[in-house]
Design brief:
about 270 residues; mainly alpha; globular
Length: about 270
Amino acid sequence: MLIHHLRVLPLLVRMHVRSQMEYRGAFWLDRLAQILSYGSVFATIGILLDRFDTLGGWTWPELALLFSFQLLAYSLGAAMSFVQLRDLEELVRLGTFDTLLVKPFSPWAYLVFSGLNIGYAGHVILAVPLMGWAVLSVDFAWSVWSASFLIAALLSATLLTAALITMIGATALIWVRSNHLFSIFFGFWELTRYPLNIFPGGIQTILITAVPLALTSSVPVGALLGKPIPILGDWAGPVALLAGPIWVLISIAYWRYATSKYQGAGG
């Protein structure tokens, strides 16, 4: 059965990618709009730095590394989860999720891979060159260890992003409605493109614990650059690396729990 699933997954991805690329002009115009949108956000950070020189002790190249890290981790994680799990609410409301339960296939795997969102290409196109520039410009002595930490932390942040989105979407299996929770998610996510230490203690605690999105941005990048990390201190690096795998396990358990509570279209 596992081999069968592994053979089917690439087919699901190819079918969805072809459907998304049917109107290529519109697709790439949308990506350009994404690049301009996030580019304007980064320009705003640049304006702040031009006025105040540093932000919470972070210089311009360091903030560029933070911004690109946050954007890249989000785009990779959300490509595997956001649109698919956002649409789960509608599947539950209309009762079409029931059809996935009778397929000889994991409902989660089918949702994720049949809806793999290549629309995040715009995020990646902006984030990768910016990260490359930041890595070369930041005042930091790179080594094999630090480069390996950056890659591992990026992978962990990607997993954490996908896990949190999965848990939000899975809530629809219990409550039917869950998309309002995404508004809360993105409200906090927008804060994480800035250093954690500029926020009040209460928000710092929330961004590390209840909505641990700081672990997808300023905590791993700050630990890499040797910045003081509120609350976590010297544990920031290990926590950032372990957060992704741990939250994936939590999201798997929550998905199974939510699925067990699902009562079908009839309620």
